[in-house]
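Thread: Modeling a multi-component assembly for a lab meeting

Hi all, long-time lurker, first post. My supervisor asked me to bring a structural picture of a complex we are working on to next week's group meeting, and I have zero experience with this. I have the sequence lines for every component (226 residues in total). Could someone generate the structure of the whole assembly? Inputs are pasted exactly as I received them:
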Amino acid sequence: TQLLEQSPQFLSIQEGENLTVYCNSSSVFSSLQWYRQEPGEGPVLLVTVVTGGEVKKLKRLTFQFGDARKDSSLHITAAQPGDTGLYLCAGEPAYSGTYKYIFGTGTRLKVLA
Amino acid sequence: NAGVTQTPKFRILKIGQSMTLQCAQDMNHNYMYWYRQDPGMGLKLIYYSVGAGITDKGEVPNGYNVSRSTTEDFPLRLELAAPSQTSVYFCASTGDGLSYEQYFGPGTRLTVT
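Re: Modeling a multi-component assembly
Sure thing. I ran the full set together rather than chain by chain. Output:
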C-alpha cells in the first residue's frame, strides 16, 4: 500500500511566523501536488511539482520535490490568518500510468492574528 | 463553465437505504474520480474513470458502485447504506496529459443513521 504521511498533523502559530509542512513516502511519484482546503469546500490546487529537486515559489509559499521524488515540503514565510486551512499533498505513483492520485493525511494549519 | 457540480449538498440516510450521488463536469475531461473524506483527514479514492465506459476501483470501493456512460457524468451509487459510509464525498476531474490539476466539486455531506 502506497502511503503519503504528512507532518505535523496540526499546527497553530502566530501571524508572521514561518512554518514547514512535510509530505513523505517510501514510494516514488511521477508528480506531487499540494492543495489547500477550506471548511465546507473542495481542495484547491496550489502547485504541481514533477522533477526531482524542483523548487517552486508562489508568493510566500515555497514548494520542494525531493531528489528521489519520494517526498515534498511546503514552506510558508510570514504566515497570515488567510493561510489557515487544511493542506493536502497528493501524488501520482510512478509507472502507474493511471492518473490515480494518493492523498496525504493532511496538515491542519491555524494562523492566529 | 460551471466546472464540477455535485448534488445533493447534504443527505441523511437510514441504514440499509440506497442513493446515488450525482457528479457532472463541463470541461470535457476524460478522468473523473470519487473520493471520501472523513473528519479532519485526507481523501481516499473510491472509484475512478479514465473515460466513458471505463471505470476502476480505488482504495476503498466496498459498498459503492459507479458508472460512466458519458464523458460529463460520473454518478456514485451507495447500496445498503451503513454508518461507516458517513462522510463527505468529493467528485473531481482532470484533463489529459498536459494538466495535472484535479478540479473538485463542492462535496456531498452524507450521514447514515
